[in-house]
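Complex 485.
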Amino acid sequence: MEHKKITKVLIANRGEIALRIIRACKELNVKCVAIFSEVDVEGIWVRKADECYPMMGNALQAYLDGERIIALAKKAGCDAIHPGYGFLSESAEFAESCAQNDIIFIGPKPEHIALFGDKMASKVAMKQIGVPVLEGTDEPVLDKKEGEKIATEIGFPVIIKAAFGGGGRGMRIVLKAKDFSDMFDSAQNESMKYFGRTEVFIEKYVQNPRHIEVQIVADKYGNVVHLGDRDCSIQRRHQKVIEIAPSPRLNDAVRKELYRVSTKAMFRLGYESVGTVEFLVDEQDNIYFIEMNTRVQVEHPVTEVISGIDLIQRMIEIAEGDKLKFLQEDIRLKGFAIEFRINSEDPQKNFMPSAGKIDTYITPGGPGVRIDSSAYAGYTIPPNYDSMIGKLIVSSLDWEGAVKKARRALDEFYIEGIVSNLPLHREIVRDEDFIAGIFNTSYLDKKMDIFNLKAVDSQAEEVKKVGYISKLIASIKEHKLIVRS
Ligand code: ADP
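Predicted structure with adenosine-5'-diphosphate bound:
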């Protein structure tokens, strides 16, 4: 196999993941080129890259215009493009187009992106390899009446899913036959709105499952290694909010089986690069493949923390044609890591996005704390993109220690100017079920009512306390000790 050294990478993304890729490149002595839309002029990744290029015009389109990005990569003398997550990361057409233009796409082969971009086709492929999947349709359901018949055969509740969906969109749970028709229409409409396609399929809906996923790393030579699992059950509207590596309560036999089927399937398919095989685990510990993500994921840092392996760097090396430098038996997973997605949204207003200027941004630190974020004090969050502004990752040798660290770090985190979901995280890490490691995908729905989502911020209180500083000065003069309340 041909080996081609990557010397300069164009980062076809923005925000925290663009910065994350720059960090990986710097350590590998690879030059990096950033792009930015006109609303992203203040982006920190723009400043940190070796070169940066404006992509004027529509703010969203800036990171989606494959042709223009490839032309720019060529002009800037890049030999590779890293797509990050979202945007072009799961476009088989873009990966193919990179290859045709002699640019290395840092990711899997186009045929795997295409296969797994279709959730229904990927279920069929995985089933053929012997990976358990949920009962459901193998073909898109076009007719509503036919769909209702199939749903009745499967047995309610069922879930209608956009075949080309993602990010929790284009999914509708149908509890009873009478709701089927409305839900079918709304799943199709949402799929059209976000993905420009209407193909939907039906599968059995699992009550109270856990979402467990397996991180895969595979090279071009058939070496497939897993880096353990992540528990992403804490979700809101089918979107992940907190991710944990490894799952704090997973039966050993189930865990082994997840690893076995994931690595076997990826080996059989000849998959290369990093990727995530996602499963639902039901209350009886049955496992079901739901989808495969052919890219680096938002939650990759928790795996990096417990494995000590830099996933972005390995992606680059694999794309160059390197053999994996580790085998399965070399992998040692250590401790627990928890990631909290920090979103600029208002938990008290049904998590409405809250764009605007960040006035104060004090991040936690100390042992076992990692911050992957593109935010800073003075930064104005544009309203055009996702509301995630960063991630807090904490780790410790045991689960209890990781939860304690999470509490401490979340309390240290102080953001002023915009509203964030920090109050939600602070409630979760004090919840007895979370502390006991007992949660499934229904967790947040059930807890939301009892959580206090008002931002009670000890630092804010302190900073704002009228006369606090003068009180301090007075205490010095009077040699008096001030005890913080
Ligand atoms: P997306 O690609 O939009 O993230 P997924 O297929 O990965 O969609 O599913 C996201 C989440 O939706 C899962 O983690 C789970 O909470 C829920 N979900 C998906 N399929 C089912 C199902 N068949 N039964 C119950 N919950 C499901």
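The chain has 17 helices and 22 strands.
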